[in-house]
Amino acid sequence: MSLWSSYRSLSPKTRALFGVGVMAWASIGLWVLPEVEGAMGMSPTKQEQDELDRKMAIRISRVDKDGH
């Protein structure tokens, strides 16, 4: 029995609770991530963060239809 068929065989209420549980687990993970990174010494330095922000900046340029 595959994982998908096992999931599909659950009752709709159980699947909904499972989905809510997964979303809650992900939300908690995103909420505590900065503290965990800081405790493990993995938080970026100011220079690394500035470089990442510079690379991730959205640049939009305008192109005219007639090619000018």
Word description of this protein:
- Keywords: Membrane, Transmembrane, Transmembrane helix.
- With 68 residues, the chain is mainly alpha-helical.
- The chain has one domain.
- The protein is 66% helix and 0% strand.
- The chain is built from three helices and no strands.
- The longest helix has 28 residues.
- It is flat and about 55 Å long.
- The N and C termini lie far apart (61 Å).
- The model has no long low-confidence stretch (mean pLDDT 89).
Mean pLDDT: 89
The main pleated sheet reads as:
none
Question: How many distinct domains?
Answer: 1
N- to C-terminal distance: 61 Å
Keywords:
single chain; 68 residues; mainly alpha; 0% strand; flat; transmembrane; membrane
How is this structure best summarized?
This protein has 68 residues and is mainly alpha-helical.
How are the elements arranged and paired?
Layout: H1 3-8, H2 12-39, H3 46-56
